[in-house]
Amino acid sequence: MMIPGRNGQLLPVTLVTGASTGIGSALAGAFAGMGNHLLLVARSEDRLAGLAEELRAAHGISVFSCPADLALPESPQRIFDYCLQHHLAVRLLVNCAGTSRASDFNNLALRDIERIMAVNMSAVARLVHLFLPGMVAEQEGGIINIASLGGLQGVPGLGLYSATKSFLITLGEALHMELRGTGVRVATVCPGFVDTGFMEKAGHDRRGVRLPVCSVDVVVRAVLRGYRQNRMRVYPTPLDFLIVFSQRFVPRLFSVRLSGYLAAARNNQ
């Protein structure tokens, strides 16, 4: 194991945002189990510290934590500076942090609009822009973006959220092609509804959802498999793939109406 700062060596790490809960926490555990050293990022300092200690004890790896609110424009640079100070080289960037609010766009508070766009889009773009040059220079690395099936069409009641996930999908597709031959992989994951508590935080009553809610473990296995196979897009379940594939054969208006029906995000309005 390389020790940070000794003889000028850098410690290669996997950076996971949104690491304190849900998919981010589960992926941090999965990568720790593979022997990856970690840098965990989330707003909750206490949760990060607890998870870091747990993963160190269980897997004998180095785990660093950098509490940060990705809604703040300066946070990506703070994370990058933290890596410089601790002599860490990010070789895998896993963008799991995300936020949402179930509401018609017209009823969203401006603070919610700004936060959703900042966390789901701006922070991701800034982190990629900061860490990608180092990966390309070393001809080694990867980026995993957790998007959503919602990003493949507008979702009534989740319009801004679905728009930000469309951003992640199209950015990931472009990067996947731009970085061919550089040694850097880019995979974009498009799950449906996942049992993480995310919907409840967004004010989205999951009891009305007309799609199966899959487990975090299913998503994690799909992420690891898709990244290993260098997939441009990753669909965690066959149903996810089927929903996307079927959109080729129906009018766009039907797809949007169906997404609104299945998500049922407007039921409590």
- Tally of DSSP β-strands: 7
Q: What's the gyration radius in Å?
A: 18 Å
CATH topology: Rossmann fold
Structural domains: how many: 1
Strand content: 5-15%
CATH top level assignment: Alpha Beta
The residue-averaged pLDDT reads 93
End-to-end span in angstroms?
A: 54 Å
Main sheet properties: 7 strands, parallel
Annotated CATH homologous superfamily? NAD(P)-binding Rossmann-like Domain
Low-confidence stretches: 1-7
Fold and architecture overview:
With 269 residues, the chain is α/β, with parallel strands linked by helices. It has one domain (7-263): Rossmann fold. 46% of the residues lie in helices and 14% in strands. It has helices spanning 22-33, 45-59, 75-85, 110-138, 159-178, 198-201, 216-228, 238-246, 252-263, and strands at 11-17, 37-41, 63-65, 88-95, 141-146, 184-189, 233-234. A 7-stranded parallel beta sheet has the order 3-2-1-4-5-6-7, sandwiched between helices. Strand 1 (11-17), helix 1 and strand 2 form a beta-alpha-beta unit. Helix 1 (22-33) crosses helix 7, helix 3 (75-85) runs parallel beside helix 4 and helix 4 (110-138) runs parallel beside helix 5 (159-178). It is globular, with a radius of gyration of 18 Å. Residues 1-7 have low confidence and may be disordered.
Show the helix and strand layout:
Blueprint: E1 11-17, H1 22-33, E2 37-41, H2 45-59, E3 63-65, H3 75-85, E4 88-95, H4 110-138, E5 141-146, H5 159-178, E6 184-189, H6 198-201, H7 216-228, E7 233-234, H8 238-246, H9 252-263
Parallel strand pairs: 1-2, 1-4, 2-3, 4-5, 5-6, 6-7
Helix pairs in contact: 1-2, 1-7, 3-4, 4-5
